[in-house]
Structures are given as structure tokens and as C-alpha cells.
Amino acid sequence: SGIEGFWAISSSVIVSLGKLIRDNKTLRPDHIEGVVNLLDYILEQRILFFEQTAHIEPSAKTKSERFLASTVLESTLVVFLGSKNNGVVSKCINGIRCVCKEI
Questions:
Q1: Whole-model pTM?
Q2: At 82, is the secondary structure helix, strand, or coil?
Q3: Which of 52, 62, 74, 93 gets the highest tally of CB atoms within 10 A of its CB?
Q4: CB atoms within 10 A of CB 59
Q5: What's the rounded Cα separation, in Å, for the pair 39 and 13?
Q6: Cα separation of 4 and 89, whole Å?
Q7: Which of these, 42, 87, 62, 81, lies nearest to 1 by C-alpha position?
Q8: Domain of life, per the record (predicted)?
Q9: Of 8, 88, 87, residue with least CA distance to 49
């Protein structure tokens, strides 16, 4: 169904982006900021989608993907809470807020 596709795709994107900036030590600060901004946007859209489809329970089929996305995202956001860039820190705080809302 559409909701399963949404969760699968958005979870895969979050895992890929989170691992990219968390595990790649050669990224420039502006690239990290760009990816954090993109993650923040995706999380905001997931919250909107979640609110609009709250009456539909996601199936167990996407549970492991959603769990992996949350785990990667949480570790990535915590790592970048220590950034010297206030914009990155602000987006990480918002991302953590979104993860808490989603749970």
C-alpha cells in the first residue's frame, strides 16, 4: 500500500543520509549542514504524513526498516549536537523532537 511504500522509502533515505554524515569523516561542514537540513525536512514531512494517516497502522513488514532508521537517526543527531554550527545543533534538536513525536 501507499503507506508501506512511504515508510520503506523514507526510512531507507534516512538510513543512507544518516550513515553518510555520521560515518564519513572527510565531509566539509557545509555538506554536513546540508544533509542535516535535508534530514530535518524529511522528518517534518514524516510527521505531517504520520498525523494525516494516524488511523492506519503500519504493518510489521516495515517495522525493522523504521527501527533501523530511528536508531541511525538518533545516533547521528546525538553526534552532531556537539557541532560548532548553531544551525546544525538547532536542526538536530528539532530532529530529536520529531523522532520523539514519531515514537
A1: 0.87
A2: coil
A3: 62
A4: 11
A5: 9
A6: 31
A7: 62
A8: Eukaryota
A9: 8
The counts of H helices and E strands in the chain are 4, 0
Which grid cell sits at 28?
566539509
State how far Cα 74 lies from the chain centre: 8
Cell representation of residue 82: 556537539
Q: Which three cell numbers stand for residue 26?
A: 572527510
Q: In a 10 Å sphere around its CB, with 0-12 CB exposed, 13-18 middle and 19+ buried, how is residue 84 labelled?
A: exposed
Mean pLDDT to the nearest integer, 24-41:
95
* Confidence category of residue 1, pLDDT binned at 50, 70, 90: low
C-alpha cell at 96: 530529536
- Using CB atoms within 10 Å of the CB of residue 98, give its burial: 0 to 12 exposed, 13 to 18 middle, 19+ buried: buried
Residue 76 DSSP label: H
Provide the domain count of the chain. Answer: 1
Task: State the residue range of the domain holding 29.
Answer: 2-102
